[in-house]
Amino acid sequence: MSEAIKIDLERKYDARKKYLRAKETAEYLSIGLSTVWHYAKIGKLTPKKISSRVTVFSVDEINNLLEVA
Predict the structure, then answer these.
(1) Residue 67: pLDDT over 70
(2) Which domains does the chain have, with CATH numbers?
(3) Quick check: 57 and 22 in contact, CB under 8 A?
(4) Residues of the chain with pLDDT > 70: what percent?
(5) H-helix or E-strand spanning residue 13
(6) Helix 22-29 vs helix 59-68: angle between axes, to the nearest 10 degrees?
(7) DSSP class of 14
(8) Residue 32, helix vs strand vs coil
(9) What is the CB neighbour count within 10 angstroms for residue 59?
(10) Measured between alpha carbons, how far is 43 from 40 in angstroms, rounded to an integer?
């Protein structure tokens, strides 16, 4: 990922955030929401349940996924 894209993403998403919701994760990775859940199912992303209706994903893990791709 180029530095320009990384800087643009950091501006769009608060760089201090440690977790993103599924929809934010999809936008951040430029993939569909169903793909986020597929990645969670196959183990590429680890979902963290913070309440019965809220699931988040670690920004560090998302960035690692970007670096591998």
Answers:
(1) yes
(2) 3-68 (1.10.1660)
(3) yes
(4) 81
(5) none
(6) 30
(7) -
(8) coil
(9) 19
(10) 5
